[in-house]
Every structure is written in C-alpha cells, then in structure tokens.
Amino acid sequence: MTGTTLDDYTDRYARRVRGMTASEIRALFAVASRPEVVSLAGGAPYIAALPLDAVGEMLGRLASEHGTSTLQYGIGQGTLDLRERICEVMSLSGIDVGCGASPEDVVVTVGGQQALDLVARLFLDPGDVVLAEGPTYVGALGVFQAAQAQVVHVPMDADGLVPEALEQAIAEVARSGRRAKFLYTIPTFQNPAGVTLTEERRERVLDICERAGLLVIEDDPYGQLSFDGEAPAPLRSRRRDGVFYLSTFSKTFAPGLRVGWILAPHAVREKLVIASEAQILCPSAYAQAAVTTYLSSMPWREQLKTYREVYRERRDALLAALTDYMPAGTTWTEPQGGLFVWATLPEGLDSKAMMPRAIAARVAYVPGTGFYADGTGTGNMRLNFSFPPPERIREGVRRLASVMEQETAMRQVFGSLGATSGRRRGQAGADAPGPDLA
Ligand code: PMP
Fold it and tell me: What UniProt keywords apply to this chain's record, in alphabetical order (predicted)?
C-alpha cells in the first residue's frame, strides 16, 4: 500500500468512522504542553503529589516477586481482590452492601473510558438518543458518536442538571418518534462545568428517569475529590435498579495505570464481561495488582486528602485570579471539588476564534464547543486547576484576561470582523433553553 494517501481510504471507512474528528483537546495538547505555555487546558491530575519512590518500589516488587501472575493474562471481569477493594472504595461514598453493591457485579475496565464504551456497546443502536448534560465530557461524546447515537443535551444551572429541562427533553424525544436509551450524567463536580447536582434534585432526576423507563449512567470520577465537606451521595446509593455506576482510579491514584470499573445491575453484568472480553480479553493484571496493592498496603486515604488539599488551594488560586483579572461581563462556576471551572465570556467573544491569540500569549484553555455535540459553547471555556501550581494559574489568568481585553477592543474597532459566529452559550440547537452556569 505504498503511495496511498489518507483520502484513498475515505470511501472504505465504516459509517461510524466518518464523523470522527480530533477533539479540541487533542488538537490543542501539542501546543499547550510547551513549557512556556500556562496550560489551563487538559485534565491531568498532579501526579507529583504521589509518593513516587514508594510507588516505584511497589511496582518493582510486583514484577520481581509476583511476576508469574502479574505479568500473565487474567480473567475478563477483573481480579476478585481488586473488585473487593473497589467495593470498599465505593462504600466510602455510600454505595455499600445495603444498596446491593457486591464484587460479583463489578467489572474492572481500562479506565473510565472503556467503561463508557462498554455501556455504549451494550445499549446503543445507530440512531438511538442519549440524553446528556450540556456541556458534557468530551470523551463520552466521542464514544456516543462512534456508536452513531444522537446526543440531546439537557441544560444545567449552578445546582446541576435542571429536572424540568430533563422532563422536557424526554417528552420532545418521544414526540419526535425516537428512543432515548439512557441519561448519561456526571452529577458530582461535573466535567466540564464544575457544578454538582443537589441532594433534592438527585431524587427528582432519578424519579423522572424511572417514570420514563430511562437507564441512568452515572459517571463519577471526581466524587471523592471534594474540597468543602462531603459531596452528596451518588445516585447509585439511592437506587439499585436502572443505575450503572462508573468510576476510575485515574483521578484518585494515577491515570497511567488505566484502571476503572462499572458497578452494573446484576442481570447485565455478564453481558458486560462478554463485551469487554471481545474488546480487550482482560484488563491488565499488572495494573490491577498495582491498584490492589496500593489500596491494601499504602496510605491511600491520606493520599486522597493530599490531592484534595492541593486542588483546593489551586481552585482558590484560580477563583481569586478570575475575580482579580477577568473583564466585566465574564462569569464562572465555583466548584466544590473536581478539576474544572467553566467560564462564560462577555457577550460577543468567541473562545474558539480567540484560541490562537491565547496560545500566542502563552496561555491555553479548552473552548466550550468541545463539550457539546452540536457546536454550541463558543461563548464558554473550560479551565483546569489541578495541574499548574497556584502562581502559574494566576499568571495564566492574567494573560488570558489581557487577550480577552484585546479581543474586545478589536471588536470595537473592526465590528464583527474581530470576532464571533454569534452563537451563544447553551443554545442546544435553535430553540432549547440555555444553561445558566454562573
Ligand atoms: N469520565 C469523565 C467524566 C472524565 O472526566 C474522564 C477523564 N477525564 C473519564 C470518564 C475517563 O477516565 P479515565 O482516564 O479513567 O479513562
């Protein structure tokens, strides 16, 4: 096949591949990771906060002393040892035996991302509708797009997903003769919005989904990263049926190990294992042993506290810098945990159009459009605070604010030439209500 170009393959692609394009985040990583750029893009945990020497020693011993099992194939569902530890971790947030959580119903996955992909493989036919918060996790959008499903966004406000908007979206989908299979939600410290679904709304959202016969996919990578008291208990701790709980060790330990899990309703668990075996045979025995050993013999609860403290300080630095530097008309969310702040720009500024100038000014963020399936979000950006240290965050926001001021000045001089497509935040299509995330 020498001499072929990418275009020669175009008419051979499967239909599901045709809409695949690089996410905004992916395209940005190359430039954003240059050392002179303050990157508020990405979502990397601050791995330097781990006791790396001790972790390294543990990893070495796993190979030298236990290599005959840790470097061998394993079983598709994941090791029982790890599934038991996962149940211990979930019980910290209220998902315990009382609500039917058992190692038998846990499936270990390659990060939270494979968990999402498995759920999509199990439930989505081309043309099915997925309801998801608007904005939502970019990696979930990629999975749903690959499954040829259609995402209908449901707006949020500062209290998370708006229950009335969910009811409205369910009714609209039904009226159009389509079938919504599930609600995909990140109720706690949402990526990218940083908001959390309130206690009261959790019950309402569950009731609405139950009445509509909608499954709930609860994605919870951030629930244990709370800064100001405990997060509300997960949806899964309130209902045992109809809720799939997905999580990962990527944010509480290390994403490099790629270990996540699904707690599935018992009836479905076997199908998930079969689907996972078809995809990956089994999750890495070595990575599973690393997480199991970490959870059984290292001070992981202390580490969680360390992560929380580091991120709380950085969240505070970001919020203070936004208050000090952002031009009038900018608003932002105030997360109580997780890794992200969602900012809404003054009327007329376009975060995507502004990106090259921001990079030239040595600051990076993710334009809001990456988090919607429909091109909405030009008036928004996601800002990450977990990775850069506080003083870099402050400098990044200072640079960003000056880029925004220049953009605004240019708009005033050149009118619409300086700027924007005119699409505003939260317009999920032409007629849906916009989120008020501020
Ligand atoms: N879900 C959400 C909401 C996420 O933010 C992420 C990671 N950024 C994932 C899933 C995927 O997690 P992992 O890195 O464990 O695959």
Answer: Aminotransferase, Pyridoxal phosphate, Transferase
- Phi, psi torsion values for 418, nearest 5 degrees: -70, -5
Predicted pLDDT of residue 420: 44
Residue 178 DSSP SS3: coil
CA of 57 to the centre of ligand 1 (A): 27
Residues having CB within 6 Å of any atom of ligand 1: 43, 111-113, 137, 139, 186, 191, 219, 221, 248, 250, 255, 260
Residue 269, strand partner residues: none
| Contacts for 1 with CB less than 8 Å, ≥ 6 apart | none
**Pairing relationship of beta strands 380-384 and 366-367 according to DSSP bridges:** antiparallel
Q: How many helices (H) and strands (E) does the chain have?
A: 14, 14
Query: In the structure, what pLDDT confidence band is assigned to residue 430 with cuts at 50, 70 and 90?
Result: very low
Q: Are 70 and 62 in contact (CB under 8 A)?
A: yes
Q: Decide: residue 72, CB within 10 A, 0-12 exposed, 13-18 middle, 19+ buried.
A: exposed
Instruction: Say which residue the tokens 């919870």 belong to.
Output: 220
Q: Mean per-residue pLDDT for 184-212?
A: 98
Q: Which residues contact 263 (CB under 8 A, 6 or more apart)?
A: 86, 90, 95, 101, 105, 106, 236, 244, 245
Collapsing DSSP to helix, strand or coil, 343 comes out as strand
Percentage of the chain beyond pLDDT 70 is 91
Query: Rounded to an integer, what distance in angstroms lies between the CA atom of residue 145 and that of residue 244?
Result: 20
CA distance 298 to 313: 24
- How far does the centroid of ligand 1 lie from the alpha carbon of residue 113, in Å? 6
Query: At residue 26, does pLDDT exceed 50?
Result: yes
**Rounded to the nearest 5°, which phi and psi values hold at 344?**
-115, 125
Q: Report d(CA 231, CA 172) in Å as an integer.
A: 32
* Res 42: pLDDT: 87
